[in-house]
Amino acid sequence: MADGRHRAAQPANTYDATTLTTEFEQLMRNKRFNRLQEQSRSRPGSQSPVSSMSSPMPPPPSRAPPPPPSFGASPTHPSPQPSTPSPSLRGLPIMPSPPQDPASLKFYNLLKGLSVTPTKYENPGLLDEALCLIPLDRLYSEAEEESQIMQAQAASIGGKPEWGYQDCVIRALLRWFKRSFFQFVNNPPCSNCHMPTIAQGMTPPTPDETARGASRVELYRCAEASCGAYERFPRYSDVWQLLQSRRGRVGEWANCFSMFCRAVGARVRWVWNSEDHVWTEVYSEHQRRWVHVDACEEAWDQPRLYTEGWRRKLSYCIAFSIDGATDVTRRYVRSFGKHGTPRTRAPEEVVLWSIHEIRRKRRENMSKTDQRRLIKEDEREEKELRGYMASALAAEINGLLPRSMVGGRADEQKHPGGRQEVAREWAGAQQRGPGNSGPDRSGGR
Ligand SMILES: [Zn+2]
């Protein structure tokens, strides 16, 4: 992920509309070349940065922060730098840079704090307790059945099954978690008379609630006049506690479900979104990539659900795991023009530095072999994420977005399930309709 943020795509080998891509690249290349020529004419003696020509696409507007003061100062920068960086050069690869202003430092500290969440799952006692609650036999046999069906389907058309057995275990876990284990709570019912309650605002946690990991407690009052009892709703972030309470909103769902994925042996990520949503990613050994999983929605591999389904605009989606952190925004926001919102919390150089810093910390005690493996994986993912952008950009300029192109041809080569995924996504969005579960849940992570 290191350098690619703004370098956009290589001529897309993962994309079959080669002509479209080539035309677009040519267009951007000409535009940029003219700009650079103009620049070098107005600045005699400065070297024309021809090497930047290898990056044909500019960053989408919402992802181009103003360059920080240190931008051109790095001695290790791969490209020739004019003395004063110009906005037209923002397309160059960015260099990580530590936070230097209060806002950047605040954002780094926020990410550092969030990065601790998945480390809490690495507790054998906790995972054992979780395993005791999961009906493993049932999930394993469901997974076995589903995976055999997929194998048979694949064999009949001479291909590879879409998902492996391990993926099917997580899919079974997802169904059970959503349908039988965890409860979604807007206003908690009155525990006295079970009638609906009305929100009264926040109230300070009791020592007991604090001890059990609730830093925020919501207060409700029974709507039944003859009762009028108060109902407390502590927002627990402690996964032990969630095994007991088994209820909450998106935050509790994602936290507890991610831990359950870990308990059944998956590699897991807890994904934080700056627009107040959280979800899970699970690594599929079968597909060799990270797969989006949203327990609240029982959504499997539908990364465009939030933007193209719910019409949300997102700025940052950062995935945290015991192996580090990754900016996975491009997996969820395929078109920044349409679904992105400006990333103003910190310069991109600082975001990159923060991600690297969290990775460094998580990986410092690993063997060299493991470190190398993770670097390879980071690189592979970076390529995947770049591929999404290239496809979406090429499709956009050709006016084919959204329905005919998004996820259809562009994604299909990479992910055989591409078209199905989109179909499910749109179906889900339509079923949900306005004011239904999706967007309504945003308020209460
Ligand atoms: Zn009541």
Write a structural description.
By secondary structure, the protein is α+β, with helices and mostly antiparallel strands. Helices cover 44% and strands 13% of the residues. It contains 16 helices and 11 strands. Strands 9-8-7-6-10-11 form a 6-stranded antiparallel beta sheet. Strands 2-3-4 form a 3-stranded antiparallel beta sheet. Strands 1-5 form a two-stranded parallel sheet. A hairpin with a 4-residue loop joins β7 and β8 (289-294). α3 packs across α8. It is globular, with a radius of gyration of 24 Å. Residues 1-16, 40-91 and 405-444 have low confidence and may be disordered. Residues 190, 192-193, 195, 222, 224, 227, 229 line the site of zinc ion.
The pLDDT mean sits at 79
**Major sheet characteristics:** 6 strands, antiparallel
Bin the helical content.
40-55%
Number of helices: 16
User: Helices and strands, in N-to-C order?
Assistant: HHHHHEEHEEHEHEEEEHEEHHHHHHH
What is the gyration radius calculated from CA atoms?
24 Å
Main-sheet strand order equals 9-8-7-6-10-11
Structural class: alpha+beta
Termini separation (Å)?
28 Å
Number of strands: 11
GO molecular function, one term: metal ion binding
Region (Disordered): 1-98, 404-445
Pfam families: Transglut_core
Biased composition (Low complexity): 42-55
Topology (SSEs and partners):
Layout: H1 18-42, H2 102-114, H3 124-133, H4 136-157, H5 165-181, E1 183-184, E2 197-203, H6 207-211, E3 214-222, E4 230-236, H7 239-245, E5 247-248, H8 250-263, E6 268-273, E7 277-284, E8 289-294, E9 299-300, H9 305-309, E10 317-321, E11 324-327, H10 329-332, H11 336-339, H12 348-363, H13 368-397, H14 409-412, H15 418-432, H16 437-440
Parallel strand pairs: 1-5
Antiparallel strand pairs: 2-3, 3-4, 6-7, 6-10, 7-8, 8-9, 10-11
Zinc ion (ZN) binds next to loops.
